[in-house]
Task: inverse folding
């Protein structure tokens, strides 16, 4: 077992103490089975640099190990010293029981509840909103159907203290309260639960929808509360799923409600992403509300009815299916195939035969009830920092918060690095028509990677700055150099301006292949002398053309780098494209 001081303390300079997970040391004996006794588990953990044991009772065995000379007491002294230093810094010697907080303000004031609602509103993400179905206008509605297992349940999230609706506001209660203000009738039907495949009550949800103007369906997941209630949980620590589809009969419920023909809003209340291919294709409006706590209901109702404009953006990508994992945005260049020929059942592809590997919704995605325009990218490059500025204009009709995101790609590096990495973001409130310059700053040190020797370094070279609204919606780009390295010419396109020709006409032919010798179809052969396409390769990569003996040809196909060839009286020109 490696001592934590080797890396954590000596290499990374960590100065505080190391604390075990709950019962983890005893698990060396009972679960991992690397130790034959509690005493041996204690020895392994302390020797590895673990200072404080939580829950289990292995460390009391250390005293006997010291007496027998099986462990050096200096290891215990080091651990005690680190713990005492932390307690001293926390002021526990002067106030060991926190009496200085005994007279502090109540733990649940109105300000805290207001902050909870603000956090819930800011973190909700609008994934889809076809034809501006959202926000719903209560004055124009006669009735609403509120459907689903998460409609009348507050989801506080993993390790929370409570799972009781008495400690928070459910979406149903908040929607009812706001609807009553406008005389809108609310019809509620749970339809199904989160776990069971029982579809018995879906008919009630369908009936409620048929007699209502709009249906709002609340589905998703539930997590356990800490050491209290683990029933009905399908998300969180220790709850694994083999399939990322919605659990139980939730998918059946959504399809049945959609089949009524009424407008449907899906609200995914969850602690994790689900695979929602059918829902994305068929449900016009989809909102995800991560476990939002006590003000969950008020926050979601404010967004649904337009009192709050959603501004959250995804911090995790949604996969198309379980088989599409991993779906993270910051993948390596080689992670998504070489050919980039993504197919479908109707037109099979190559490296991804039946679908694209792209995420359903990518990291950084998030919609608003308004729109924004990005322009005038400006770079202020300094020795130790990069300051990026972009002008953002609210081009819509309502106030909203723009969330510009700055990604960086190390164009070439001695160690493979991701295609892009988020380095900065901002959030700014803009009124309709308002324009503002927004700053996105990061340190040059943030461009470091870990080399093969385990050392962190910033390698001189080209870095592409990408500014956009999400990882898959990059609007502005600019390349900078770090370390005075000249710009690479590797990705320059071939000049295809017209060339003067005087030679005789000759017949030429050839085959165009990729780097793995596979024939490439639909490659255009462009004559720079005639300034036109003179041939196109067939499905075998073959072509034939009549050109001047001194012509210059350019071979072009989307997804490949253009290749230029001088004819020079050659009647056969075979080449490779990549």
Result:
């Amino acid at each position: 077992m490696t001592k934590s001081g080797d890396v954590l303390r000596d290499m990374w300079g960590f100065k505080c103490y190391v604390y075990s997970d709950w019962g983890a040391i005893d698990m060396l004996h009972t679960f991992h089975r690397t130790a034959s006794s509690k005493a041996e588990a204690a020895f392994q953990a302390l020797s590895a640099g673990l200072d404080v044991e939580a829950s289990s009772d292995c460390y009391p065995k250390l005293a006997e190990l010291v007496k027998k000379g099986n462990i050096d007491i200096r290891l215990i002294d080091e651990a005690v010293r680190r713990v005492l230093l932390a307690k001293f810094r926390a002021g526990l010697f002067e106030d060991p029981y926190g009496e200085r907080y005994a007279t502090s303000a109540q733990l649940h004031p109105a300000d805290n509840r207001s902050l909870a609602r603000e956090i819930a509103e800011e973190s909700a993400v609008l994934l889809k909103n076809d034809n501006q179905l959202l926000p719903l206008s209560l004055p124009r509605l006669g009735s609403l159907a509120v459907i689903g297992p998460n409609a009348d349940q507050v989801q506080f999230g993993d390790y929370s203290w409570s799972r009781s609706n008495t400690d928070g506001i459910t979406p149903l209660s908040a929607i009812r309260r706001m609807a009553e203000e406008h005389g809108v009738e609310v019809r509620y039907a749970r339809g199904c639960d989160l776990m069971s495949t029982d579809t018995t009550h879906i008919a009630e949800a369908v009936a409620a929808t048929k007699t209502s103007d709009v249906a709002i369906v609340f589905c998703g997941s539930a997590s356990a509360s800490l050491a209290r209630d683990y029933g009905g949980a399908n998300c969180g620590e220790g709850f694994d799923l083999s399939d990322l589809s919605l659990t139980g009969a939730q998918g059946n419920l959504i399809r049945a409600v959609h089949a009524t023909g009424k407008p449907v809003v899906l609200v995914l209340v969850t602690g994790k992403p689900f695979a929602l291919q059918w829902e994305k294709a068929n449900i016009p409006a989809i909102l995800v509300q991560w476990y939002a706590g006590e003000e969950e209901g008020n926050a979601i109702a404010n967004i649904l009815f337009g009192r709050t404009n959603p501004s959250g953006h995804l911090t995790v990508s949604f996969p198309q299916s379980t088989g599409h994992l991993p779906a993270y945005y910051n993948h390596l260049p080689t992670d998504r195939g070489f050919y980039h020929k993504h197919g479908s059942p109707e037109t099979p592809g190559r490296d991804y035969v039946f679908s694209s590997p792209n995420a359903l919704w990518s990291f950084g995605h998030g919609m608003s009830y308004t729109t924004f325009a990005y322009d005038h990218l400006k770079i202020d490059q300094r020795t130790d920092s990069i300051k990026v500025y972009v002008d953002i204009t609210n081009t819509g009709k309502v106030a909203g918060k723009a969330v510009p995101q700055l990604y960086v790609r190390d164009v070439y590096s001695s160690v493979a690095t991701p295609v892009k990495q988020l380095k900065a973001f901002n959030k700014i409130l803009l009124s309709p028509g308002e324009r503002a310059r927004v700053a996105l700053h990061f340190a040059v040190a943030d461009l470091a990677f870990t080399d093969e020797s385990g050392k962190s370094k910033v390698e001189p070279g080209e870095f592409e700055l990408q500014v956009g609204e999400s990882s898959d919606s990059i609007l502005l780009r600019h390349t900078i150099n770090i370390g005075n390295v000249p710009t690479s010419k590797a990705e320059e396109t071939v000049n295809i301006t017209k060339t003067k020709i005087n030679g005789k006409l000759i017949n030429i032919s050839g085959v165009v292949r990729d780097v793995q010798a596979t024939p490439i179809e639909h490659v255009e052969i462009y004559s720079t002398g005639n300034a036109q396409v003179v041939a196109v390769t067939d499905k075998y990569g073959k072509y034939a053309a009549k050109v001047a003996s001194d012509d210059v040809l350019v071979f072009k196909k989307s997804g490949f780098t253009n290749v230029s060839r001088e004819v020079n009286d050659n009647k056969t020109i075979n080449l490779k494209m990549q």
